[in-house]
């Protein structure tokens, strides 16, 4: 049972809304996951890294248990909230089970009109995020060492920077380490936007900054390396009209074409027109089936142009190559990719993709087989919750060390004005997830700063406060009844301080 359903059970009798949504999930079970356990089909692929999968699963369990335990603790302490030594007992319980203190004011006020479980739930969510950040280095060390697409590999394909824009949807928040098996690092950026509709001006500026470093000789091997932009849209194979991308009305085709338009006709053109033809970075368009974490990879042609009809799918590759030896499977994958590349008609391209791009595409296809099997082995072939199940919203810049499916909904923004659409989509998701069950929406406003630049930290905090104030003003209908709680945190981009909460702002409304 998930966190919210359990807390809801604790607060009041199960509501018909929850049962209806659970029934809907059950009805949406796909008929054809990549591989059905118990179907007699062999579900062990020769190219899967099972040790890496185990390490990733251990990490996923550790992170999720922090949030599951919140409900157990709140449930427990609410049973003795009228006892004489309540505050001390509750704090001791929280310290033992959660590893942090509860806000004592909330506990001390409990005798007046009962324990404010909603406020505590938000505060515990923020504190648990903080614990995930603090323990990230130790808890991620194992899988980080085994990640196949690390910086060296990306450089061998010809890329100094990989800039990934998935949709803000929580189901894509683990896309880099889990679905793509690309090691998150200083030169792998994840900037999520509703519908994968990234900000072209921000990207031009990020690209230009790396160009300066490359051309000034500050980058090793800079003369042969390029910048790669990846847009990641998503769809749901088992519930195409219900659990696809909310920003595109669950319309698969619209999600594909909108992301393609932005990559090809906006970003590439913007850079070619500003800096001269041929300056544009390489681009790649990838679709994720969020039920299975399987990929649809669109192949660039000899001119780097991507096409909505020229692609291959890794779920099909898994089925076609399971049971083959590693060598035979690799040869078959290369054939499938070459076939997709050579297709005529609507998928016709102009020449073959660059060899570095081919190397990357083949590696992505192979690495994703491990993720497909991860979902088969650890999530019974498809995720139990194929829809939204995020714990909170993160607005601003990504907390780089936190990348896990459905941990949060992420809206990349500098000001609330430009991020309005992303925030509205997120708030609407949480109206169903939390508010419908009487739980507030926790919103973490997070910005990075560069510790080498004087006053940068103060400016990041000031920006956080402005965005927090704007969010509270925009959703004032939720703030008044205590259904939206904001916290502000900042991180040093160069690696020092990570996700430090601005203490006077934690919790917001109480
Ligand atoms: Zn989406």
UniProtKB/TrEMBL annotation:
<dbReference type="InterPro" id="IPR048620">
    <property type="entry name" value="CsoSCA_C"/>
</dbReference>
<keyword id="KW-0456">Lyase</keyword>
<keyword id="KW-1283">Bacterial microcompartment</keyword>
<protein>
    <recommendedName>
        <fullName>Carboxysome shell carbonic anhydrase</fullName>
        <ecNumber>4.2.1.1</ecNumber>
    </recommendedName>
</protein>
<dbReference type="GO" id="GO:0031470">
    <property type="term" value="C:carboxysome"/>
</dbReference>
<keyword id="KW-0862">Zinc</keyword>
<comment type="similarity">
    <text>Belongs to the beta-class carbonic anhydrase family. CsoSCA subfamily.</text>
</comment>
<dbReference type="GO" id="GO:0004089">
    <property type="term" value="F:carbonate dehydratase activity"/>
</dbReference>
<dbReference type="InterPro" id="IPR043065">
    <property type="entry name" value="CsoSCA_N_sf"/>
</dbReference>
<dbReference type="Pfam" id="PF20687">
    <property type="entry name" value="CsoSCA_N"/>
</dbReference>
<feature type="domain" description="Carboxysome Shell Carbonic Anhydrase N-terminal">
    <location>
        <begin position="45"/>
        <end position="136"/>
    </location>
</feature>
<feature type="domain" description="Carboxysome Shell Carbonic Anhydrase C-terminal">
    <location>
        <begin position="389"/>
        <end position="504"/>
    </location>
</feature>
<feature type="domain" description="Carboxysome Shell Carbonic Anhydrase catalytic">
    <location>
        <begin position="151"/>
        <end position="388"/>
    </location>
</feature>
<dbReference type="InterPro" id="IPR048619">
    <property type="entry name" value="CsoSCA_N"/>
</dbReference>
<dbReference type="InterPro" id="IPR048539">
    <property type="entry name" value="CsoSCA_cat"/>
</dbReference>
<keyword id="KW-1282">Carboxysome</keyword>
<dbReference type="Pfam" id="PF20686">
    <property type="entry name" value="CsoSCA_cat"/>
</dbReference>
<keyword id="KW-0120">Carbon dioxide fixation</keyword>
<keyword id="KW-0479">Metal-binding</keyword>
<dbReference type="InterPro" id="IPR043066">
    <property type="entry name" value="CsoSCA_C_sf"/>
</dbReference>
<dbReference type="Pfam" id="PF08936">
    <property type="entry name" value="CsoSCA_C"/>
</dbReference>
<dbReference type="GO" id="GO:0046872">
    <property type="term" value="F:metal ion binding"/>
</dbReference>
<keyword id="KW-0614">Plasmid</keyword>
<dbReference type="GO" id="GO:0015977">
    <property type="term" value="P:carbon fixation"/>
</dbReference>
<dbReference type="InterPro" id="IPR014074">
    <property type="entry name" value="Carboxysome_shell_carb_anhy"/>
</dbReference>
């Amino acid at each position: 049972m998930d966190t919210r359903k359990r807390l809801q059970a604790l607060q009041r009798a199960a509501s018909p809304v929850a049962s209806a949504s659970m029934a809907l999930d059950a009805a949406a079970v796909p008929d054809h996951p990549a591989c059905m356990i118990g179907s007699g089909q062999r579900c062990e692929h020769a190219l899967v890294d099972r040790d890496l999968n185990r390490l990733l699963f251990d990490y996923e369990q550790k992170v999720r248990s922090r949030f599951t335990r919140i409900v157990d603790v709140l449930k427990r302490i609410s049973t003795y909230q009228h006892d004489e030594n309540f505050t001390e007992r509750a704090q001791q319980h929280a310290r033992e089970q959660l590893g942090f203190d509860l806000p004592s004011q909330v506990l001390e006020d409990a005798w007046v009109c009962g324990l404010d479980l909603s406020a505590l739930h938000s505060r515990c969510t923020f504190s648990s995020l903080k614990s995930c950040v603090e323990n990230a280095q130790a808890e991620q060390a194992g899988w980080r060492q085994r990640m196949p697409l690390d910086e060296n590999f990306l450089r061998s394909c010809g890329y100094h920077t990989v800039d990934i824009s998935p949709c803000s949807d929580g189901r894509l928040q683990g896309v880099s380490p889990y679905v793509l098996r690309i090691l998150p690092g200083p030169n792998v950026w994840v900037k999520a936007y509703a519908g994968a509709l990234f900000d072209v001006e921000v990207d031009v500026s990020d690209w230009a900054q790396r160009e300066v470093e490359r051309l000034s000789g500050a980058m090793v091997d800079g003369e042969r390396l390029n910048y790669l932009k990846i847009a990641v849209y998503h769809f749901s194979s088992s519930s195409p009209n219900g659990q696809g991308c909310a920003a595109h009305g669950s319309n698969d085709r619209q999600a594909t074409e909108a992301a393609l338009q932005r990559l090809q006709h906006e970003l590439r053109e913007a850079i070619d027109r500003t800096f001269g033809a041929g300056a544009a970075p390489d681009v790649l368009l990838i679709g994720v089936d969020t039920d299975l974490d399987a990929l649809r990879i669109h192949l660039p042609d000899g001119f780097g142009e991507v096409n909505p009809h020229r692609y291959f799918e890794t779920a099909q590759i898994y089925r076609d190559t399971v049971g083959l030896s590693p060598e035979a499977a690799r040869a078959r994958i290369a054939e499938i990719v070459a076939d997709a590349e050579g297709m005529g008609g609507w998928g016709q391209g102009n020449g073959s993709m660059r060899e570095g791009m081919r190397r990357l595409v083949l590696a992505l296809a192979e690495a994703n087989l491990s993720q497909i099997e991860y979902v088969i082995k650890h999530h019974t072939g498809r995720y139990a919750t194929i829809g939204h199940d995020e714990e909170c919203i993160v607005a601003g810049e990504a907390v780089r060390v936190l990348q896990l499916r459905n941990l949060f909904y992420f809206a990349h923004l500098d000001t609330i004005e430009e991020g309005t659409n992303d925030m509205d989509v997120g708030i609407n998701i949480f109206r169903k997830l939390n508010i419908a069950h009487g739980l507030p929406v926790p919103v973490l406003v997070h910005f990075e700063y560069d510790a080498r630049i004087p006053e940068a930290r103060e400016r990041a905090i000031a920006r956080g406060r402005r965005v927090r104030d704007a969010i509270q003003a925009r959703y004032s209908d939720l703030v008044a009844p205590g259904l939206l709680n904001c916290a502000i945190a900042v991180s040093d981009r160069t690696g020092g301080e990570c996700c430090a909460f601005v203490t006077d702002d934690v919790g917001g409304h109480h």
